[in-house]
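Bench notes, afternoon.
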Amino acid sequence: MSNALVVIPTYNEIENIERLLRNVFSLQREFDVLVVDDNSPDGTGAAVKQLFEAYKGRVFLLEREKKGGLGTAYIAGFKWALERDYQYIFEMDADFSHKPNDLIRLYNACEKEGFDMAIGSRYVTGVNVVNWPMSRVLLSWLASKYVQFVTRMEIHDTTAGFICYRRAVLEKINLDKIHFIGYAFQIEMKYKTYLSNFKIKEVPVVFTDRTKGESKMSSGIISEAIFGVLKMKFKSLFNSLDI
C-alpha cells in the first residue's frame, strides 16, 4: 500500500477514467487511487471495477447512490482515507485537466519540503490555462482575486481543485462542518487550512480544459462561491466559523 491516496470524484467520466488511472499507475512514484462515483449512468463505476485485477490493492471504488456534489464526494473520500494509513491525500479531477505527472511535484512539496498543503496553481506564475475561452479565464481569475481580497489569504488560485493534503490537515478540520458542495468547497478547505496556521505552497501547473465529457460548472456553483466567501469571512471575524 502506498502512503499517498488520490481521490477522484466521477460522474459520467467513462471516456476518461480508464486512461487516467493507467496514467497514474504508470508514474515512477506509487499512488493509490480512490474513485468516488455518483452512480454514473454511463458505466464509469463498472470501468473502474474492470481494473481491480490488473491493479490489485491500488485502485478502489466508493459508490454513492446519487449525484451529491463535488464537496460531499471529496469529504467521503477523505473520511475513507483517514480510516486507513494514508499520510498524503490528493484531490484530482477525472478529465485530464490536471496532469498526472504533477502529482509527484505536489507530493514532493509536502513530503520533502514540509508543507501541509500543496496547491496545483494556475495563477501563481501568471495565467496557465489552455483551451478555456477568455471569458471563463477572466471569470476564474477574478474569482480568485475576489477571494484573496475578502479572506486576505496569500493564495493566487483559491478555487484550485488539484491539491495534496498532509494527513494532519484533514484530521484537524472538522469534515462534518464543511458547508459548501461546489467550487466554494475548494475555497472553504483552503480558508480553514489557512486559519489553522498550516503551511501552504502553490506549485505552478498548466491547467488544460477537458477534451472529452461534459463540464459540471453551473451558475449555482458560481453564486455559492461568491456569497459563501462573504459568509465565511463574516463568521471568522466573530470566531464563529467551525474549523
